[in-house]
Write a structure and sequence with these properties.
By secondary structure, this protein is an alpha/beta fold. Strand 7, helix 8 and strand 8 form a beta-alpha-beta unit. Strands 1, 2, 3, 4, 5, 6, 7, 8 and 9 form a nine-stranded parallel beta sheet that branches.
Length: about 300
């Protein structure tokens, strides 16, 4: 089974939201421990996403609670699940082990406080998305009508990411914010975004944005969100392959991977219901691309984009 490095899932949000769920059982989650093992996971990024309904004064404590959930349900009960923060720690994983990497989806939780951000780095966060879909103290998001760019504080956050060798994630940014990040960030990625030319959704990226990411040694994780894959009623693996093919045509064969967004979506592609279905996608890729290219899509391309 080829190893997989998936750039985004929201299982921590699901676990925090519903105490009846368990990461260690197949009980309705898309990316539980049994499913990660079944699907061939080698490194999984676990997003820290704070819902918009959480009061401002409670957001940071909420994100810390989610970090606690990560250690209590993902790391401590599973001998094969290991916190990873660097390439070296990934290299040190044993064959049976799965690396677990924390990411921050939106800086709402830190307010205007860089100490809170640096604390999250120390807890293991290795990628930071400045916004979710709307505006905050850092930037405008993809669904913010005014379409503004980074704020002064947003640029400070990017500089902090750079100095700590932390990736800056553009997936939820407005287009102007995206271009600000491209100018300022040393390690830009789009953890879970697709091609706007193929599916005209505000969360997808234009050809120019995608090319800029590639030129800046960035990475794009093709996501399984149906409404980012197709305008048709139902999405499938063939739609995922269509986005991969287009990204390759733009010169991204060494910059493409996956950011499933499992557990952050209500609907999935009809033939990718959960992480356990990854082998279906792997099989479809191997029919179109060389094994070396598929290994890149599944793991190596994202690994290569990690700060040294």
């Amino acid at each position: 089974m080829l190893p997989i490095f998936d750039g985004h899932c929201d299982v921590l949000f699901r676990l925090d939201d519903d105490s009846n769920l368990s990461f260690n059982k197949e009980n309705g989650l898309h990316s539980s421990a049994p499913l990660l093992r079944k699907g061939g996971a080698k490194v999984q990024c676990f997003a820290l996403y704070i819902g918009e309904s959480i009061p401002e004064e409670s957001k940071y404590s909420n994100v810390l609670h989610m970090v606690d959930t990560f250690f209590n349900q993902v790391i401590e009960p599973n001998q094969d699940m290991v916190l990873v923060r660097t390439k070296q720690e990934i290299d040190e994983l044993q064959d049976h082990q799965i690396g677990a990497m924390l990411t921050l989806e939106g800086c709402d939780a830190i307010g205007h406080d860089l100490i809170k951000l640096r604390t999250l780095y120390r807890l293991g966060v290795r990628s930071v998305g400045l916004t979710w879909n709307h505006a905050n103290s850092c930037a405008d998001g993809a669904l913010e009508p005014r379409g503004g760019g980074l704020t002064r504080f947003g640029f400070e956050v990017v500089r902090e990411n750079n100095s700590h060798k932390v990736m800056t994630d553009v997936s939820h940014l407005s287009e102007r914010s995206f271009w600000d990040v491209i100018e300022a960030a040393k390690y830009p990625i789009a953890s879970h975004s697709n091609v706007k030319r193929l599916c005209d959704h505000p969360r997808n990226l234009t050809d120019e944005q995608i090319t800029a990411l590639f030129t800046n040694d960035g990475f794009i994780g093709v996501t399984f969100v149906p409404k980012f894959l197709t305008t048709q009623a139902e999405a499938s693996i063939s739609d995922i392959l269509r986005h991969i093919e287009y990204l390759c045509e733009l010169g991204g064969v060494s910059h493409i991977g996956f950011g499933s967004d499992f557990d952050g979506i209500d609907e999935t592609p009809k033939d990718m219901k959960n992480y356990g279905d990854y082998p279906k996608l792997v099989g479809a890729l191997l029919k179109r691309y060389s094994e070396e290219q598929v290994k890149g899509f599944l793991f190596k391309n994202f690994y290569d984009c990690l700060p040294g």
